[in-house]
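Ticket #419: bound-state structure for adenosine monophosphate.
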Amino acid sequence: MSRIIQIVNAIEGYDPDALHVEKARAAIRACLNPVTASERLPVREALGRVLAEEIVPAFDVPGHDNTAMDGYALRHSDLGAGETLLQEIGAALAGKSFDGTLGPGQCVRVTTGAVMPAGADTVVVQEIVKVREGKVAIPPGQKKAQNVRYAGEDLKKGMPVLKAGALLQAAELGLIASLGIGQVAVKRKLRVAFFSTGDELASVGTALKAGEVYDSNRYTLYGMLQRLGVEIEDLGVVRDDPALLEAAFRKAAAGADAIITTGGVSVGEADFVKPMMAKLGEALFWRIAMRPGRPMAFGRIGNAFLFGLPGNPVAVMVTFTQFVREALLHLSGRTGELQVPLLKVPAAVPLRKVAGRTEYQRGVLFRDGGEWKVKTTGQQGSGVLRSMSEANCFIVLEHARGKVEAGEPVQVQLFEGLA
Ligand code: AMP
Ligand code: MG
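RESOLUTION: The complex was predicted; output attached.
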């Protein structure tokens, strides 16, 4: 028995002909080996990449106790039950500290980010302070240590702040810069090759013959892959011809970590895609209990993982977002939660649903008065690509669930997020 089949067969409840989406996810996850190679890059070039080392602060950030507000630094023990008059003895500015030490009854004017003057423990904001008889009048009710930021409050010397496997986004670039680090080790980019199969497909730029459709799958895949920050190799449309398919699979497997194909994996297909996958590597042919997107192949050709997606344009996007996306992030070396979050909102309309399969209906989250609700985009056919464009989320209806009444909570998965 080959390796992938062995691993997958060990999964409890694994049934290739009626595969629960969670079992498909688990099966894929159990087989993947993330990339290990890394490279060093200047921090800005590392944006969107996966960290390959631990970041451990060599010093505290901030490096000194400092003031969080513009105002006056003072000794809290000097303050009485009523208003207290203090003597201003100098100023501490951000980048220009006060050299002396506060004694009893004294205060120092401070700006945000100034090093806390020695002897002071509390900052009172400028807006509530008055000058009286040449002194600074502090109103009662000040809390000890208020408006002070402590050394190491953000990053502590020696305490790891980022782990290998972290995605480097805007905040992480800033954190790394705050430690004065100019270069970081990141995992090498994942290489993903893809092609479309089907004799009915015409490439954009050629004239459409009778019975042909333009290949749109390579465009949606391109868009989804770009967002994952992987290196892309587009091998075009491949005719349903054994020699051409073999050449395409071999070329893809030679350079890529993952191969994505669309079309030719459904049960009724009398073509060469499935036999070729099985001939060149190991391939599992699944019927997943989901809609859209039931047929899917998963396997390996040489060192490349294989994702044979269905041909229908919506099914491609759904199987990609639900299985391939997460698999590619895992292969890229990412750690932590990789699934897109599921949030609950009320359905604005009744939804048709058949128990026994997970459905990914195309939804529109909209504001109804003060409340966010979700409705479908209408026609849900797996060839209606327009539904993906009109939608801003998937309505994810669980395997066991039947029809949904208006007002019932449903799970949604947003297409867009922050950053
Ligand atoms: P298949 O999975 O090969 O049976 O294809 C299912 C449906 O998806 C058929 O109607 C195909 O014409 C359509 N289809 C397959 N591949 C593509 C593609 N690359 N772009 C647009 N439609 C496609
Ligand atoms: Mg076909």
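RESOLUTION NOTES: The helical segments are 3-9, 21-31, 170-178, 217-227, 242-255, 273-280, 313-331, 386-390.
TICKET STATUS: resolved
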